[in-house]
Write a structure and sequence with these properties.
alpha+beta; 6-stranded antiparallel sheet; 5 helices
C-alpha cells in the first residue's frame, strides 16, 4: 500500500493506498483548494520515504502540504465527483433550502401571531382577563418557538440572514 503524490507535466496523481486521484494540477486546485503552482516534477513517496524534486533525489523531509493532501484524498475525490457531476435541475442548494425553511417558518409565525392578536383583541373588548393572559402566554411561547426555529434553520444563530 503506497502513499504517493506525483506532479509531472502539469498533471497530478495521488494514492493513499485505498483510493487514487489523477487530474490536471489546475483541476486539483479546484477540488482541493491547494495551489501547487510552478512545480515541474515532484515524486513524494511517504511509504518509502522518498522525495524526488526536479529529477533530483532529495533527502526525505516530511512535507506537511503533501501529507495533508494524501490524508484528505477522500474529500478531494468527493469534490472532483461533484465538480464532474452535472447539477440536477431540481437539486436545490443548501442556501435555497435554508431560505425556503425560513420563509415557511416566518409565514407560520405570522399566521399564528395574527390569530393570537385577534384572540387578545376579542378578549380585551369583552374584558375577559383570563383569555387576555392566555393570549399573552401563547404569544411569548410563539416568539420563543419562532426564535428556536430560526436558530435551527441558520445553524445555531438567530440572525435571519435574508
Amino acid at each position: 500500500m503506497q502513499e504517493i503524490l506525483q506532479i509531472k507535466n502539469g498533471n497530478i496523481t495521488i494514492s493513499n493506498g485505498t483510493s487514487d486521484y489523477s487530474d490536471t494540477v489546475a483541476n486539483f486546485t479546484l477540488d482541493s483548494g491547494v495551489k501547487l503552482d510552478n512545480i515541474d516534477f515532484v515524486m513524494y513517496n511517504r511509504t518509502d520515504k522518498v522525495l524526488i524534486k526536479d529529477n533530483k533525489i532529495i533527502n526525505y523531509v516530511i512535507n506537511n502540504t503533501y501529507d495533508n493532501i494524501i490524508d484528505d484524498l477522500k474529500n478531494i475525490n468527493d469534490k472532483k465527483c461533484y465538480r464532474l457531476t452535472p447539477p440536477h435541475p431540481h437539486r436545490k442548494t443548501s442556501e435555497e433550502l435554508r431560505k425556503e425553511a425560513l420563509k415557511k417558518a416566518t409565514e407560520e409565525f405570522t399566521a399564528q401571531k395574527e390569530n393570537i392578536l385577534t384572540a387578545y383583541a376579542i378578549a380585551s373588548l369583552s374584558g375577559n382577563q383570563s383569555f387576555m393572559a392566555k393570549a399573552q402566554t401563547d404569544y411569548k411561547a410563539l416568539i420563543l418557538s419562532y426564535s428556536e426555529a430560526i436558530k435551527k434553520i441558520n445553524g445555531g444563530t438567530t440572525n435571519e440572514r435574508n
